[in-house]
Amino acid sequence: MSETTAVAILPARGGSKRIPRKNVRPFAGRPAIHWPIAAVRASGLFDRIVVTTDDDEIAEAAEAAGAEVPFRRGADLSDDHAGTTEVIADAVTRLGLKGDIPVCCLYPTAFFVTPDDLIAGHAALGEGATWALSLGEYRTPIQRAYRRATGGRVAAMDPAQMPRRSQDLEPAFYDAGQFYWARATTWADPAARVWDGAAAVVLPDERCIDVDTPEDWTRAERLADLLGLGA
Q1: In what order do the strands lie in the sheet with 173-183?
Q2: Fewer Cβ within 10 Å of end Cβ, the chain: N or C?
Q3: Is 219 exposed, middle or buried (0-12, 13-18, 19+ CB in 10 A)?
Q4: 221: Cα within 13 Å, side-chain hemisphere
Q5: Is pLDDT above 90 for 104?
Q6: pLDDT tens, 171-219?
Q7: Does residue 86 register a pLDDT over 50?
Q8: What is the pLDDT, as a whole number, of residue 1?
């Protein structure tokens, strides 16, 4: 193999609780994990596509889609408390990646990620960002958010902001939960924080579906129908 230029790592454990078996659950005619792997392959960026899992069925589905599963993740990194950065750091160590290798963590249910999204994140890393991550823009100003108060009433989170016009307030963004780029050395650093030195890849609102609940899955299926995904 030639010198590695970029590696995609998909964390896909078998014990999903809210959507059982979600990483291999059929979505638009394919196992879920096939969709982001297809985007990774189409981007042309990656020398290796690695799935880190504890589950044989997920491993089989990943390999069928063109990824490699060179190891099984340990039980200590496969429960509800294991963090994504820990899982990717473990994979970086197991793979023996050099510190400057760009590594993209991509979630198995990032059904609507595109090759261009991944290319934009890679470019941001190349321009000096420590991290690059997918973001969505809040549709309404969070500065004018409400909270539940006593007695069933509501109150302004920040009363001073309420009289201001929407167009005068700074746009705010949220983690779209699709992918994160960083170099191998950053992933391996336990003190690294994804919001430090990060660049944004802002996704269209309709593609910002972080699939964590059955309701998220239903919304994703509706969007797939509209887009003709899998047709």
Answers
A1: 48-52, 7-11, 102-106, 173-183, 131-137, 198-202
A2: N
A3: middle
A4: 13
A5: yes
A6: 999 999 999 999 999 999 999 999 999 999 999 999 999 999 999 999 9
A7: yes
A8: 37
Domain residue ranges in the chain: 7-135+174-227
Amino acid at the residue 151: G
Topology of the domain comprising 7-135+174-227: Spore Coat Polysaccharide Biosynthesis Protein SpsA; Chain A (3.90.550)
Per the structure block, which two tokens stand in for 190? 């336990």
Tokens of 166: 């929407």
Residues contacting 130, CB < 8 A, separation 6+: 182, 186, 192, 196, 197, 198
Question: How far are the Cα atoms of 11, 34, 51, 123, 185 from residue 226, in angstroms, in the given order?
Answer: 28, 19, 29, 30, 40
Token couple for 115: 């090759």
Yes or no: say if 45 and 6 are a contact pair by the CB < 8 Å rule.
yes
Residue 93, helix vs strand vs coil? helix
Give pTM, 2 decimals.
Answer: 0.94
Amino acid at 81: H
How many Å separate Cα 62 from the centre of its chain? 17
Measured distance between the N- and C-terminal CA atoms of the chain, rounded to whole angstroms? 36
